[in-house]
Amino acid sequence: MSEENKHHATAAAILPLVGGARNVTSVAHCMTRLRLGLRDRSLVQDERLKALPAVLGVVEDDTYQIVLGPGTVARVTPEFEALVRAADTGSEPDGPDHGSDAVTAESLAAQGAALRAERKARNATPFKLFLRRIANIFVPLIPALIGCGIIAGLNGLLVNLHWLPGVTPALAAMASGFMALIAVFVGLNTAKEFGGTPVLGGAVASIIVYAGVADVEAFGQQLSPGQGGVLGALGAAWLGVYVEKWCRRWVPESVDVLVTPTVTVLVAGLATLFGLMFLAGEVSTLIGDAADWLLSHGGAGAGFLLGGLFLPLVMLGLHQALIPIHTTLIEGAGFTVLLPILAMAGAGQVGAAIAIYFRLSRNTSVRTTIRSALWPGLLGVGEPLIYGVSLPLGRPFVTACAGGAFGGAFVGLFNQLGTDVGSTAIGPSGWALFPLLDGSHGMGRTIAVYAAGLVVGYAAGFLATYYFGFTKAMLTELNAAPADPADPKAADPADPKAAEKARADEKV
């Protein structure tokens, strides 16, 4: 089967399992997930969906998210959209597939779904909803950040090796062009997210990167192009949205097309030049200085806390607050020192999954899930392992966090000793982060420290889970072989008389 046919087949398999075209209200994707808006969540057949070979897991948040993995999701999404547009809206989805064993991958996945639903309910607070909106501004930028980051790393390697001197300036332009104008893209997305006209948000944010701002003085200082960066762009576009909405309420329709854009750019632009750029620049500098101070004075301890708490932050939705911080650090230093430390949480999760695989030697269902989800986990896609294995089990999730803590402490220690380990883009982790690594002491040492940190995370997660992840009662229950329906001795555990008869037969 060709690649195109394979992706079409995946989309065609997913559509009926989410309730058909009539049940789909919106289709989008991020780096790894197909994000669907659904009319009726009860029509989704979770277990059949998760059983599809291409599906790595599902996550229920404000949208229903199907984890397909990097690359695959970008190819499946347009096929899915085409099917939704062309589908016969009268078709009905197949009935749900019931039936699962007491302690199997399916039962754990059901528990994981319940935990996701509970998390979604907890996350419906104004603060967390605001963080989600901030994430919606930056997540669409991640593919460009990754692509430009990898090109920047390749260019740095060629420059250090003195290879292809005629090509490296072109690569530098490709790598730097997007970052030089990232404020404009942030402005566009901010206006779109908060209900304004995207191009007006981009117009206001573009003031920040215009070279002529060097002639403007604010707070007794000359401004510099790019001052305030993405934080300034976010604030400028947000202000522009509210000015635009005010104009829409009060400006007569006959002159709206002339007055509203002019007033929006004028008012928000003046506020940006004579206030926001300076203030956002100070905040950006403070964030960079705080990150440097934190890792240079308490790198191991800070790394331990960051690596250990990142998975719970993800569960609470608070990790979204880190996206603007990562972007600000990349703007200022060229890389973010926080992401390689946070990536150790995924390493602890992988180590924990391997320990679970060995400890549950008789649970073929859970072991099969781990085998299929482990490779995505190594590449930084951890949702299948988290929601399908460790989180429903409880204790292994805690020991996975312990593995991330030790891996984070290892990388943080080297930052404390002067070897900065950073990433030129946000998004991937695990092995997928290697092409994006950058640091203060050359690529060789940077890669070595990050790789060693992964090994520490794997090992710590494995050991913590193997020795402390299960009680004796848990091991007894989880390793119990599921009943064979074809066995006449098999008894329904819900039928006390049948169970008693089965035990009597065993004694005979």
UniProtKB/TrEMBL annotation:
Domain PTS EIIC type-1: 132-484
Annotated transmembrane regions: 137-158, 170-188, 195-213, 255-280, 300-323, 335-358, 447-468
GO biological process, one term: phosphoenolpyruvate-dependent sugar phosphotransferase system
Segments of this protein annotated with the region Disordered: 483-508
Cellular component, GO annotation: plasma membrane
GO molecular function: kinase activity; protein-N(PI)-phosphohistidine-sugar phosphotransferase activity; protein-phosphocysteine-N-acetylmuramate phosphotransferase system transporter activity
The keyword Signal appears for this protein: no
One Pfam family per UniProt: PTS_EIIB
Basic and acidic residues bias (residue ranges): 486-508
Keyword Transmembrane helix: yes
InterPro entries (alphabetical): Glu_permease_IIB, PTrfase_EIIB_Cys, PTS_EIIC, PTS_EIIC_1, PTS_IIB_1, PTS_Sugar-Specific_Components
Residues annotated as catalytic: C30
Principal location: membrane
Keywords: Cell membrane, Kinase, Membrane, Phosphotransferase system, Sugar transport, Transferase, Transmembrane, Transmembrane helix, Transport
Domain PTS EIIB type-1 residue range list: 8-90
PROSITE patterns: PTS_EIIB_TYPE_1 (PS51098), PTS_EIIB_TYPE_1_CYS (PS01035), PTS_EIIC_TYPE_1 (PS51103)
Gene3D superfamilies from the UniProt entry: Glucose permease domain IIB
Designated name of the protein: PTS alpha-glucoside transporter subunit IIA
